[in-house]
Amino acid sequence: MLQEMISASGMTSEEYWNTYEKYNVKRLLLLDKLYNTIINNGIRSGKLEKTNSTTFSPQSEYKNYVDNIIEQYVKQSKISINDKYKDMFKDFTVN
């Protein structure tokens, strides 16, 4: 199935693994670093309790904390489109 997807994309297997998946690995590593940084900041500020437990409850608390922090940043963000690209996005809507 993966080979079919690669073929349908017009990439070679080498391009897929060295370009597409390489990008995904970078993205995953950055997200992991962001997650860990948010958790460590939460622990330092006293908003989270440090635990070495990998059980559901503390991990769920950590995940909810990270999701809430990211959501706060998203709500506060201001997104604008450069004037030279506005025509490209004139029919674009966000739900």
Provide a descriptive summary of the structure in words.
By secondary structure, the protein is mainly alpha-helical. The protein has a domain at 51-79. It is built from 3 helices and no strands. Helix 2 packs across helix 3. The protein starts with a helix and ends in a 19-residue tail after the last helix. The model has no long low-confidence stretch (mean pLDDT 91).
Features:
95 residues, Transposase IS116/IS110/IS902 family protein, flat, mainly alpha
Short précis:
With 95 residues, the protein is mainly alpha-helical. Helix content is 64%, strand content 0%. The protein has three helices and no strands.
**Strand content bin:** under 5%
Model regions low in confidence, pLDDT < 50 over at least 5 residues: none
Count all strands and give the number. 0
Describe the biggest sheet? none
Tell me the structural class. mainly alpha
Helical stretch count?
A: 3
The arrangement of helices and strands along the chain is HHH
Radius of gyration: 20 Å
- How far do the termini sit from each other? 33 Å
Q: Summarize the amount of helix as a percent range.
A: 55-70%
Instruction: Tell me, rounded to a whole number, the average pLDDT.
Output: 91
What is the global morphology?
flat
